[in-house]
Design a protein that fits this description.
By secondary structure, this protein is α/β, with parallel strands linked by helices. It contains nine helices and eight strands. It is globular, with a radius of gyration of 17 Å.
Length: 266
């Protein structure tokens, strides 16, 4: 498995500095948070996009994917959501990113069946566009669809190879799913895995990997047992928790911990 980190952990940091962290601390790739407050977002010009792609190539770092904020199950009109997804897919194509993350984002005023159908309809519509660009959409286990079983209800309806899953291990754990259950649900569609650590279900402030309660050992074990060889991406949510320790000073220990887990699982 290859290791990456998300720029959610270094909010607003210039791309050259992000790439410098990846190379200095031994990470193979970076997941870019695609938001207007970040250096990389869908509003970039063609020249700016070319410069981003060139920066990754020069650094020898892979661009794992774009973490977008489209909410595919949210109530409302389809057109705006699909336009947002298309903008993210265009950016991914221009930068050479293989994946675009989207959220479920279902509303409490919907039934689960309505939310599933809305998400599947929008993802199915966007799937053909994604296929034309050579990019894959990944529905993250999050908010209204936090478990693998929840995500599978949507992905089963879509049934398109360009639409898959992003396994956020915190949300499946918060949803009461065991790692083996999550993997079995998501495996046919799994794009990559986001790892992290927290103190408890009531305190999700990000912690160094191994310092909290999330079942990272079990996650790596189940992935290894099934011969999965994709990406583990550390999503350290510094952007939402200003008091959390700075990510750069944790990167070495985080990589070493994941490497130990991989070695032990092998």
């Amino acid at each position: 498995m290859k290791l990456a980190f998300s720029t959610l952990g270094v909010p607003g940091l210039p791309l050259t500095d992000v790439l410098g962290l990846a190379t200095a601390h031994g990470y193979h790739g970076v997941e870019l948070r695609a938001h207007p407050e970040e250096p990389v977002h869908p509003g970039l010009t063609p020249d700016e996009r070319a410069a981003v792609a060139a920066g990754f190539k020069t650094a020898g770092v892979e661009l794992l994917g774009l973490a977008g904020y489209a909410r595919v199950a949210a109530p409302g009109d389809d057109d705006a959501v699909i336009a947002e997804i298309r903008g993210l897919l265009d950016l991914a194509r221009d930068l050479g990113a293989p994946y675009v993350r989207v959220f479920p984002g279902g509303g409490t005023e919907q039934s689960s069946q309505e939310a599933d159908a809305t998400a599947a309809r929008r993802l199915g519509t966007a799937a053909e566009y994604a296929a034309d660009l050579g990019v894959r959409l990944l529905l993250e286990t999050h908010d209204s669809h936090r478990t693998g079983a929840d995500a599978m209800r949507v992905l089963g309806l879509v049934g398109h190879r360009r639409v898959g899953a992003l396994w956020d291990v915190m949300h499946t754990w918060l949803g009461g799913e065991q790692p083996a259950e999550s993997y079995l649900a998501l495996a046919p569609h799994l794009g990559y895995v986001q790892v992290k650590d927290i103190a408890s279900a009531d305190d999700t402030t990000p912690l160094p990997l191994s310092a909290g309660v999330l079942p990272l050992t079990e996650v790596v074990d189940v992935l290894s047992r099934h011969g999965w060889d994709g990406w583990l991406c550390w999503e350290y949510e510094k952007r939402w928790y200003e008091s959390a320790a700075p990510l750069p000073e944790l990167l070495d220990a985080g990589r070493e911990h994941l490497a130990r887990l991989l070695s032990d699982a092998a």
